[in-house]
Design brief:
The complex is a heterodimer. Chain A has one domain (about 35-175): Rossmann fold (3-Layer(aba) Sandwich). Chain A has 6 helices and 7 strands. Chain A has helices spanning about 15, 35-45, 60-70, 115-125, 140-150, 160-170; strands spanning about 10, 35, 50-55, 75-80, 105-110, 130-135, 155. The two termini of chain A are about 25 Å apart. Chain B is an alpha/beta fold. Chain B has 2 domains: about 20-300, Aspartate Aminotransferase, domain 2 (3-Layer(aba) Sandwich), CATH 3.40.640; about 305-440, Aspartate Aminotransferase, domain 1 (Alpha-Beta Complex), CATH 3.90.1150.10. Helix content of chain B is about 40%, strand content about 15%. The chains are: A alpha/beta, B alpha/beta.
Chain lengths: ~190, ~450
């Protein structure tokens, strides 16, 4: 799916609308939103600093994988976790909330339950972030509405590491379908 | 059972494909090399890859970053092939293996614990029947074989420990088409995946994910490679099965003590199955595909849509010729209007039901063996999906390990001859068969 407008595309699926979810009980709920590659590329190219809400100090948690990967790609990642203030995570000071971060934040990347995300959206707006990114499996229409009404780009149900890897071609190294076809040389995004 | 006609035609696919099938067959997975600009995919004939430093090595081994370690796990040429097949099937990810049998081993190992069970088509390819019935049974994986053309029989065979339904979209060797959408509905009602061996159809003719299948396996050796050059296999994941929600797959969707507590579904989401199949099954069982074979198969796939159109056109002409031949007792080709599978074929294989099918020669076992020895142009060998036309007497070869009853159930009775119709001039193929049938039934 591509769009030249650079805007998310909302899709309604007949099966879900008809309430037939029981028929596909073990089929994953389809993401209702797809994002043009250009929109995601713009997020990565304009971002310097990412605040990661729910960053875990435990090295084998998904948030730690994502933080470390984004650091390797040249982003500064600031962890936010009120229960992990004792020690730095991957070399970065941990803050209890977004409002406590002293530096400008471009992207707020969220590893929290969907119910927690509307308040995180309000905080992201308050600190002047331009992008609110909800990680894989996290969806909340209220959060999207709050963010978009304030002019933020809101991404939901996507992983910042996986999408970077997909767009850069690194994801294809593991046999994953990136959906990218091009006769130009591949390479990094930044 | 639910009324399948009342359902949406197909679940949405995990990846939206921006280009058409023939374009993907040529380009998917094969972006020019970022360093050299090499337009074709290089053969990365290397066992291993240098690390930047110790930290980079650790991150790779922990699966924290993307990259190459060792060609038993990943290789750039093999990865290009994996992405291409995933793109053609409309899947999320793929893991290649040394053969189709190896791909089935990876799929089953990732899903089954000792004592678990699958419901499999009794019409599977004979090698698959033997793999499941004897070799997998020694690993504690049990199979019940049922008539896959009878969805109610499939449903009735599902039990507490059943972890998958396994069928071929177009069965080898019998010209049998199964009702994929009905089987997917039955499997999903039991919270288990439908695995489809799509080897004989290829994604050029049928894409099982569009009908609700969850995993697709292939012998790449056949039509995808297409030229009889290279062994290979692949397991493709749709990205749509909810392994955690199912509750039947703790190996996939809970912390893995053998992988520092990593939960593959939580960490990798809709390609978690493929990551587990690679990082554990391929790593520890070891049936990696060689990069040179991957290159040959990639080259073959570039012409897949062209070849399949020709295979199907030739198969139809050969089947019609045989159906009218006085020495032929019956022809089992789903493309003939008289086939009991003609309607299913029109639905699932609208461009044609492949080019592998069977016929029965009057005179039984003896006449069957004489036909395969009398041909001149057709090659008597145990393969399908070559540019060359192939002929085989299954009862004396591929299905030899089965009992008489099992052979009949698998569509490989004593009089059965299997054809894999190639892309030669159809008149030559028909003339050669005509000569052989005449010789075999008069001598």
């Amino acid at each position: 799916m591509t769009s030249t407008a650079g805007q998310p595309i909302r899709i309604a699926f007949a099966a879900e609308a008809a309430g037939r979810s029981a028929l596909v009980a073990c089929t994953l709920p389809r993401s209702t939103t797809t994002y043009p590659d250009d929109l995601l590329l713009g997020v990565y190219r304009r971002a310097q600093t990412i605040a990661m809400v729910g960053a875990s100090p435990t090295w084998n948690r998904p948030s730690s994988f994502v933080m470390r990967y984004l650091q390797q790609k040249g982003f500064r990642v600031i962890p936010v976790n009120p229960r992990a203030l004792d020690a730095p995570i991957l070399g970065e000071t941990v803050y209890p909330d977004l409002e406590s971060i002293p530096d400008p934040v471009d992207v707020v990347d969220v590893f929290r339950r969907p119910d927690d995300t509307p308040d995180i959206a309000r905080s992201a707006i308050a600190i002047g972030a331009r992008v609110l990114w909800l990680q894989l499996g996290i969806r909340n229409p209220e959060t999207v509405r709050i963010g978009e009404e304030a002019g933020l780009t809101v991404i939901e149900d996507r992983c910042m590491k996986i999408e970077y890897g997909r767009l850069s071609g690194e994801l294809a190294w593991s046999g994953i379908n990136t959906g990218i076809i091009s006769s130009r040389r591949g390479g990094g995004l930044r | 059972m639910t009324d399948v006609d009342d359902q949406p035609v197909a679940p949405p696919l995990a990846v939206d494909e921006p280009y058409g099938f023939a374009t993907r067959a040529v380009h998917a997975g094969a972006r020019p090399d970022p360093v050299t600009g090499s337009r074709n995919v290089p053969i990365h004939q290397t066992t291993s890859y240098v690390f930047d430093d110790v930290e980079h090595a650790a991150a790779l081994f922990n699966l924290q970053t993307f990259g190459y370690i060792y060609s038993r796990l990943t290789n750039p040429t093999v990865a290009a092939l994996e992405e291409r097949v995933a793109a053609l099937e409309g899947g999320r990810a793929a893991v290649a293996a040394a053969s189709g049998h190896a791909a089935q081993l990876l799929a089953f190992y990732t899903l089954l614990e000792p004592g678990d069970h699958v419901v499999a088509a009794r019409q599977l390819y004979g090698g698959s029947l033997t793999q499941l019935r004897h070799t997998f049974a020694r690993l504690g994986w049990h199979a019940t074989f049922v008539d896959a053309t009878d969805p109610a029989a499939v449903e009735a065979a599902i039990g507490e420990r059943t972890k998958a339904v396994f069928v071929e979209s177009l069965a080898n060797p019998g010209g049998i088409v199964v009702d994929l959408e009905a089987l997917a509905t039955i499997a999903h009602a039991a919270s288990i995946p439908l695995i489809v061996d799509n080897t004989l159809a290829t994604p050029a003719l049928c894409r099982p994910f569009e009908w609700g299948a969850d995993l697709v396996v292939h012998s790449l050796t056949k039509f995808l490679s297409g030229h009889g050059t290279s062994m290979g296999g692949v397991v493709v994941e749709s990205g749509r099965f909810d392994w955690r929600g199912s509750g039947r797959f703790p190996f996939l969707a809970s912390p893995d003590p053998a992988y520092h507590g990593l939960d593959f579904i939580e960490t990798f989401g809709d390609f978690g199955f493929s990551m587990k199949a690679r990082a554990v099954a391929l790593r520890d069982l070891g049936p990696a595909l060689s990069p040179t074979n991957a290159f040959y198969i990639l080259t073959g796939i570039e012409t897949l849509p062209l070849r399949m159109a020709r295979h199907v056109a030739n198969a139809r002409l050969v089947a019609e010729f045989l159906a009218g031949h006085p020495t032929v007792a019956w022809v089992s080709y789903a493309g003939l209007p008289t086939s009991p599978f003609a309607e299913l074929a029109r639905r699932y294989l609208p461009a044609g039901p492949g080019s592998v099918f069977t016929f029965g020669v009057k005179g039984g076992y003896e006449a069957g063996t004489r036909v395969v020895e009398a041909v001149e142009l057709w090659s008597h060998l145990a393969n399908v999906g070559d540019t060359r036309s192939l002929i085989l007497h299954p009862a004396s070869t591929t299905h030899r390990q089965l009992t008489d009853d099992q052979r009949v159930a698998a569509g490989a009775g004593p009089d059965v001859i299997r054809l894999s119709v190639g892309i030669e001039d159809p008149a030559d193929l028909i003339a050669d068969l005509d000569r052989a049938l005449g010789r075999a039934t008069t001598s």
